[in-house]
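Researcher: I'd like a candidate sequence for this fold, 147 residues long. If you have to choose between options at a position, lean toward the conservative one.
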């Protein structure tokens, strides 16, 4: 099970503001050895969770499935979807629901307003039904509003 823990720590390292990691960076951020980080990254690549471009590893779209499994089963997110849609419809603006986890924020649901090229609001679309929101991920609590 230690290998699983190391692999998960490496996946979490991508969420620390790193769009791509070398083996050395993954080892440092996940507090593991370079050989262990390399084995984990190669396994994650073989499974389709990361892609490799030369020395760099990047998260792959398949990784979103892990988050979607969680987001699709949060009762608070499900219960809040009609509220997000109503707030979006009332304001004509995009509305997000975030969940705090330790010192980070995970944007769990979003009802997005569609805009014309000139920036004016037009008919809104409901993206709150999608279990993988258009802006998955997390950011620091001290960051400003999402745009």
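Model: Candidate sequence:
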């Amino acid at each position: 099970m230690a290998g699983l823990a190391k692999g998960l720590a490496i996946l979490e390292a991508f969420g620390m503001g790193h769009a791509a990691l070398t083996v050395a960076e993954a080892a440092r951020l996940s507090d593991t050895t370079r050989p262990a980080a390399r084995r984990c990254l190669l396994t994650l690549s073989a499974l389709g969770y990361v892609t490799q471009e030369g020395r760099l590893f990047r998260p792959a779209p398949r990784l979103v499935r892990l988050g979607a499994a969680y987001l699709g089963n949060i009762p608070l997110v499900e219960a809040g979807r009609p509220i997000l849609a109503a707030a979006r419809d009332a304001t004509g603006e995009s509305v997000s629901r975030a969940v705090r986890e330790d010192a980070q924020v995970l944007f769990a649901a979003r009802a997005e307003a569609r805009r014309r090229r000139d920036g004016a609001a037009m008919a809104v679309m409901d993206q709150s039904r999608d279990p993988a929101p258009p802006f998955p991920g997390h950011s620091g609590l001290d960051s400003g509003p999402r745009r």
